[in-house]
Amino acid sequence: TTKEWNQLRKMLPQWVEESRRHCFDGKVASYIPELSKAPIEALGIHILDGRGNAVSAGDCGLSFTMQSISKVFTLILALIDNGEEAVFSKVGMEPTGDNFNSMLKLELVQPGIPFNPLINAGAIAISSLIAGESSLDKSARVLRFFQLLAGNDSLDYDYDVYRSESETANLNRSMGYLLKDNGVLEGDVEDVLDVYFRHCSISVTCSDLAKMALVLASNGKDPLSGKQLIPRRYVQIAKTFMTTCGMYNASGEFAIQVGLPAKSGVSGGILTMLPGRYGIGLVGPSLNRKGNSIAGVELLQKLSQQLDWSLF
Ligand code: GLN
Fold it and tell me: Where does substrate bind (predicted)?
């Protein structure tokens, strides 16, 4: 509504500055060495609706890598390529309660398939389901799909982050080999991991994320062009996973405090939406203990409470 847009335009800069103070209570991710270069005090947000209204505040010019946010969209591409039945023979539909990079349950719980597609193990399994002749061909299809959803043909990899992750990913590598042994992965493990590292390192801004989120908020249709880019059913599946598993093992708390489908990444990005209304992209590289943007979660709580956005 016009009233809400007026309030957003008026209040957003102030809410960003209030939330930004929390940056210093968190830490920038450093297990991927290149990510530790991100500015700890940054916070930016972009909100977009289907009529082309947009508002942004804070450090919206910052480029950052999608990291785990990309898992939502590789899941969708795998569903488009293989259908529901094939995808859910390789990954489950349940939250884990464990850290995003845990491999505990892959050994503990038979038949050793990842609990869901948004934890690392699940997303690695999903990257082996992307159609293509070679791993580079698969990665090229992923990048093109992301460009289409963001309406931005210049989306590309951050090669420094890609190399940095690939060189240090001992845990993800172990997971890949365990999954191969469990019969979950097709093909060469290193090729599958390369597809995964590449999609995690696609570089975006808040407005790219907002645009991708808006497509999900509009049930797969690009409201600006009117084109159906994703089948509605696959958007429904993606939004449900975002609600139950999107904020790692803080998804329950986020559902209570914010109440929107969302997906975070370790570079501090969060993609979220108010279904039927807004696509939202934000970034704040300083993370809380669960690995979510500390100031970003604060800001979303404020927005949700002030504007009564919770779906529940
Ligand atoms: N590329 C990162 C990793 O595999 C993604 C994790 C994340 O954003 N939580 O560790």
Answer: 68, 120, 165, 172, 196, 248, 266
